[in-house]
Amino acid sequence: MSEQPQSRQPRTRLYVDSPLTAGQAVGLDHDRAHFLRHVLRLDKGDVVAVFNGRDGEWLAAIDGFGKGWCSLAVTTRRRAQQDGPDLWLLFAPIKRGRIDFVAEKATELGVSRLWPVFTRRTDPNRVNTDRLRANAIEAAEQSERLTVPDLSEPMQLEKALAAWPAERTLYLCAEAGNVRPIAEAVREKGAGPAAFLIGPEGGFAQSELDEICKLSSVVPVGLGPRILRADTAVVAALACWQALSGDWTAHGGDTRPPFRSPAESAV
Amino acid sequence: MSEQPQSRQPRTRLYVDSPLTAGQAVGLDHDRAHFLRHVLRLDKGDVVAVFNGRDGEWLAAIDGFGKGWCSLAVTTRRRAQQDGPDLWLLFAPIKRGRIDFVAEKATELGVSRLWPVFTRRTDPNRVNTDRLRANAIEAAEQSERLTVPDLSEPMQLEKALAAWPAERTLYLCAEAGNVRPIAEAVREKGAGPAAFLIGPEGGFAQSELDEICKLSSVVPVGLGPRILRADTAVVAALACWQALSGDWTAHGGDTRPPFRSPAESAV
Fold it and tell me: What is the pTM of this model?
């Protein structure tokens, strides 16, 4: 409605590849340039926030637009780099809308690695990793993460488990059998590298479950008496782990991005 | 591929309005009849499972199809009625795809009541309750719940809070301010009627938060250092509560539907 007051508050937040340091110039590709200029209607001098997963978060001013590009001038650091918990998600690819959702939600929930694995009953037999990565980047930008999750090469589950690092707990979300309640299992295991394995909509084959459970790092956990869709199980399991053993256990405002004052907003 | 062996294993699971008892006839409407006949390609004599939220789960055989209808004959009871935890979800309506998701996920996660509330920054100013209810019913069928969540009349948040029952804890999911980690708050409160309040994508207005926090039943909780979308916050918060204080705390197979043997499947 009315003219916005000039403010140092960044108008959006972008993940970039370039190194970030004061004075650095950063070029944006066609899509990003279009987004800033024609969707957000930003102009030269407007400020955005940028992060690259290594150098923290910086403010950068739009330096100029051209045909299919935009350049930014990095000014000041806003937040120091901080890595999230060491938490992997292994998941069987599911159909399109729901796999987008899995990448988005897992990123918001702070996973450090996304790893598509093919199980015996996995329906799609390939996965669009570019699309997964784009969803993860967008969610990292929106959720104010300082990193984008790593994306492991999709492979057969048994191949992924063959080289499993012994010190990383692998919570197997199982909807049947002799499993322990997730809260109890996570509390008992305590801190340390963790991963969750979520099967496809059709579930694991029993012989496959038997194989998985031979691995000494595996802890089968249950997510209650109702049958959850695979995408629901992803969010539910990751949230429980974060709340009990991850970075949701810290108190109050200290863990929030510093610019997020109580006056701004709340979910 | 090959002929399916005749089995008493129901081919699908339907929510119905009718009373359920042995010998009862149940009529299905056009959509359900079409689904059974033309989507699942069932025939007279095929068995489905039915539940109505009051009488447990029953097996029923298809008795006949007609133009736009199907009748079932209820045979034997499969599970006794059992109500889930007393857990409400108050949520600000969000855009279409994501509100469908909220109804689906909250139902899978066992809420007993869905309650859309309009906050100051809620964008949609009306909500399609028929659609919400249809999503909840479908999720109840799929997740093997024995109930469908109640759907409260959408209203302004302040009106909903004006008559708030004092004994029901209202966890306010807040992304800023002086909040307690969700696990700590839920553990401390322990059992008892609970509700979660999740704001719109734009967050609550500060004056609105101040008003909400005057209510003695309100416990502001945090969901970690990243900014979650409203739909993510719904799933995350409900999962944490179920894992710590709800029906995910029970052990092993006892809490599963009895027919779900380890050999069948797992998430």
Answer: 0.92
